[in-house]
Every structure is written in structure tokens, then in C-alpha cells.
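User: Predict the structure for this protein chain, please.
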Amino acid sequence: MGYYLNIIAVCIFASIVSFPSSVFAAKEDILRLLIWEGHAPKQHVEEFEKRIEAKYDRKVTLKIDYVTGSDDFYSAVRRKKVDMVMMTHHHFKDERFNYIKNKLLLPLDLKNIPNYRHVIPSLQKAEYLCCDEQIYAAPVSQGPYGLAFNPAHFKDEPQSWNIFWSPHLNGKYVIGVNEYIYNANITALALGYPQESIGNYNALNNKEFKDKLRQLAANAGAFWVGVDKADNLEGSFLATSWGDSIGALKKRGEYWKIAEPIEGMPCWIDNYAITWALADKPFLKKVAEEYLNGLLSTAYQVQHIMRNLSLTPTITNIRDLLTPDEAQRIHPEAPTFFDKNRILQPTYSRRDRNGLKLLWKEAMEGIQIDKGRN
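Assistant: Here is the predicted structure, written as C-alpha cells:
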């Protein structure tokens, strides 16, 4: 009997030894990000994963997914399909979602985000990211829905949004096909509407505005989706741009710039937030906050946000890292430059948002969005 028991013990031991060791390994932690394309450089992600594993002896992998429009976040957040999101400022308290009021986001623990103290002062406690003295998002990039142009095709820098309606540029410019609010904004600015009215559906719902918006859509040579890419703009003369494509275009020999139209530029602030999916996962929430801290580091803000994406940093402690040209463009010594020179998007009412969407839908009627490059 003892002989048979020994044989059984040997077999059990052999089966354990030969069984894949991965079965007994600790489960890998996954941090799920839903963000705008271009905002998760491979090297940065890999370095962060290695740093976390070395610090905690626990492997965390970042799973990155991208959106094509601002409305793509809500379903994923509500269904707890994502842990971190990168949303534009006017979506946080949008009445369609009420992310903060409905407790779909978690307040940030700033002890884990020490770089937050370097954020532009007026943004640190901006109304859109605060509730009950708690902060629910970290501003990581800013910029306009810009008037981008290729200087090779212009004697002088464009001075007005009206450049898009110049007959000689028909078919030679590119715009964002899903950016119905911003396209309405720049059309209203070109028509001379005051800044407080450029998103007001009642003010814009008239024949003159509709005809001009239709011209903007019909005369575009191509469209981009989500974010503008070098493939979208290459070879064109003019474009609306978040700035994402500017750095890549430079590498291709096209030295695009962002003009400063006299009417001003609609602008945005992109922010990272942590969703309620991590409410019962304190370790991953802390890791998420450490990731946010890295996004607010001088290295990431200068090298990636500004130099790779041609966007504007949200922190102020970068002056010594900038070239004279960079300093002139972003004015780090003047934290109020953004407030004074950009038109910050408001949180739109349902009526205005739906109205602007309808106006853009009418303007796009019969137009193939796949014409040219997209």
C-alpha cells in the first residue's frame, strides 16, 4: 500500500511541476484608459509600467483605447468599462452626463499628484473640475481649435477666419468632420458675431449663417476625424487643427503654423479623470494618480505635449526648458495669457448643443466625408 501511495505522490508532484507556472502567478492588473489618439506615447507608457512594477513588485499594464469624438466616453464610463478618461473641460458638467453629480468620477487625492501644484493657477480649481471643494480632474493639455496654415502657400499669416471662404482655397483646406460646435463657432466669428453668441443656437439659426456654414463644409478638400493627423493635412494649404499634426508635418518637411485670427480662437482644456470603476480598487486608483502626476511632469509637458503634439502645456514651471521661440508662443511667464487670448468653450445646454449639431448636419447634407484624405 505504501508503494502505491508513493507512486501517487510522485505523479501529483510531477503534474504540479509540469503545469504552466502562469496558472499560479498573480493576476496581472490592468489599468484601462480611454483617451484621444496621440496621448499615450509608447515609450512613456512602457517606462511607467516598469517604474510601477519596480516600486510595488506588482505588474500593471496600461490598456489604451481611443475615441473619435467627445460623446464616446459616456457609455464606457457608465458601464465601468474604463478606469481613466481624457475629456474636454465642457463635458464634465454637461447636463447630458453630469459625470461629477452622478458620481461617475472619483475625487483625486492630490497627495499622489504633487505636480498638480504647478498647474496654471486659474485652472487648479476651475469650476468645471470642482465640486464640494474636491477636485475631479487634472488639466493636462490645452489649445485652440486652431487656424493652421502652411506658410509655403501664404505670403502673410492669415489674419481672420474668413480665409476659409476665399474662393482660391476651395478644395485646399481640411476641417474636422465631427466638430460641429467648433465649426459653428468659427463660422459665427467670421460673420462678426460677438464671442458670447457663437454657440447660441437661437442667434445662429438664420439663412445667412446656414449658407456660410454650408460653404465651409462643401468647399473642404478633405476631413479629419477625432484628431488631425499629418496624413490628413499633408499637401493642403489650410486646416482647422487641434495642433496634433503640426509636429509630424514638420518631420515631413511641411512647416505648418497656427495663426492668431483677430476674432479670437475657440479653445479647450483636456483633462484626465478617474472613473468610478476604481472605487473599490485603491491600489489601481493610486497607480492612476501616479500616472496623472507623470503627465504633469516638466519632461512630459514639454517634450510630448508641446514638442511632439504641438499643444500647449498646463504647467508653469517650464520656462528654463523652452527655446526662445517656444517661450514666445506659449508665454509661460504670463499664466493669464490663455484666459485673455482664447475663447473657452462653455458647458452647452442640451438645446444649443442639439441645435448646433442639426445646423452642421444640414450643412453636410450630400457631402461624402471620405472625399480626399480622412
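DSSP finds 14 helices and 14 strands in the chain.
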